[in-house]
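FORM 12-B: Structure-to-Sequence Request
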């Protein structure tokens, strides 16, 4: 780990639950590390593995995919699809020489702003332990 290292995290959040949870955290004035940049997708099941791989290629130290709790997906089975894809992506990252712990999947509902804060804090801590991504430039 390098001194002063601050990880860069891409958050890919579903519109209906996790993004709303991030919004709730913000409106409730909960503070979480500024290391994460969040993009919104309609469903965690729509997260294309290429999005995750591209994020790492462009220098992300970690990717946090967040979606609705199983059984609560707005699109019925999208989060189950996301769970399968993340498991396959973690195996692929390992084969590519990246620690699979750099990819996190969390279920966060619209009312769980505090859970989002905890997830981001936990992920930042984990990534600081791992150090910068070997793909990170500069």
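FORM 12-B RESPONSE
SEQUENCE OUT:
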């Amino acid at each position: 780990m390098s001194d002063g290292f601050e990880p860069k995290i891409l958050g890919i959040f579903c519109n209906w639950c996790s993004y709303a949870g991030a919004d709730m955290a913000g409106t409730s004035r909960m503070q979480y590390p500024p290391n994460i940049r969040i993009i919104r997708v309609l469903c965690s099941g729509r997260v294309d593995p290429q999005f995750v791989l591209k994020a790492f290629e462009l220098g992300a130290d970690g990717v946090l995919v967040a979606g609705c709790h199983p059984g609560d997906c707005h699109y019925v089975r999208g989060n189950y699809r996301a769970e399968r894809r993340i498991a396959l992506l973690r195996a692929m990252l390992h084969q590519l020489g990246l620690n699979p712990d750099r990819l996190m999947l969390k279920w966060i509902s619209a009312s769980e702003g505090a859970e989002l804060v905890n997830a981001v804090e936990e992920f930042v801590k984990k990534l600081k332990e791992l150090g910068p991504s070997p793909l990170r430039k500069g």
